[in-house]
């Protein structure tokens, strides 16, 4: 009889420990946010694009983040306390070939049912092919600040119209170039043609999708100014709202577009 009680005791402890492990796994992911620090695919380490913050966040059964060009979101679950299963959709913005290839690699691994390995400060997702995503934990306070900043800036810009007054140090107030924000869309006049695109703002960074436009012609000087504007707009990476009346977009090379609110 004593042996039976001992066996029952060991079995009960085993069941309780398994339950605790499962709860700890789920709770640890829930409410956490991570920034990509390393990606390995097909035996090679891929370079994370400069000035690009690739993220993943978990909240309840929801997963979301930024994958290089687009934002993604969906649902997730942890299977057998070891495997991440996701169902993800993304926005549909375009970018450079380099960024698009990187984004595809990141999302492919994230959705390949990778095994989970984590501790207090790092999260590693590794699939059956050995492809790996490694993350460092983000500060919750910083993440909250970023989200608040994103919300404030997006709300302030939505429904506003702006006129370009300076293009990388050159006065262009009379060029008739404008930009308007509506939801996640931008549109305006680039001097001769009307243009349009999608955009995403994340904590002071802006990613603008492929810019489309009408195809009207004009004088050589106007067309040159228009080409320069579209190129700088397409490559803008930073966005800053100054005194609510001045908007500045800056490329990675420090070239600027300065707008005045209409």
From TrEMBL:
Domain DUF306: 28-135, 155-259
Lineage: Bacteria, Fusobacteriati, Fusobacteriota, Fusobacteriia, Fusobacteriales
Protein name: META domain protein
InterPro entries found in the cross-reference section: DUF306_Meta_HslJ (IPR005184), HslJ-like_sf (IPR038670), Hsp_HslJ-like (IPR053147)
Source organism of the structure: Leptotrichia hofstadii F0254
Top-level taxon in the UniProt lineage: Bacteria
Pfam family, one: META
């Amino acid at each position: 009889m004593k042996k039976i009680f001992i066996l029952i005791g060991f079995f009960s402890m085993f069941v309780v420990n398994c339950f605790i492990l499962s709860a700890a796994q789920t709770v640890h992911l829930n409410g956490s946010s991570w920034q990509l620090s390393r990606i390995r695919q097909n035996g090679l380490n891929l370079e994370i694009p400069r000035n690009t913050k690739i993220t993943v966040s978990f909240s309840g059964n929801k997963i979301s983040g930024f994958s290089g060009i687009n934002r993604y979101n969906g649902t997730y679950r942890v299977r057998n306390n070891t495997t991440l299963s996701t169902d993800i959709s993304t926005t549909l913005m375009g970018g450079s070939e380099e960024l698009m290839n990187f984004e595809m690699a990141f999302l492919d691994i994230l959705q390949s049912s990778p095994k989970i390995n984590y501790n207090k400060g790092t999260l590693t997702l590794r699939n059956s092919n050995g492809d790996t995503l490694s993350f460092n934990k983000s500060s919750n306070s910083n993440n909250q600040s970023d989200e608040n900043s994103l919300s404030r800036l997006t709300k302030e810009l939505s429904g506003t119209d702006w006129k370009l007054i300076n293009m990388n140090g050159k006065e262009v107030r009379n060029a008739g170039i404008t930009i308007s924000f509506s939801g996640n869309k931008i549109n305006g006049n680039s001097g001769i043609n009307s243009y349009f695109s999608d955009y995403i703002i994340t904590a002071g960074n802006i990613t603008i999708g492929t810019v489309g436009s009408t195809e009207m012609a004009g004088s050589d000087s106007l067309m040159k100014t228009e080409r320069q504007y579209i190129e700088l707009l397409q490559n803008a990476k930073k966005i800053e709202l100054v005194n609510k009346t001045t908007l500045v977009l800056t490329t990675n090379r420090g070239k600027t577009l300065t707008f005045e609110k209409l």
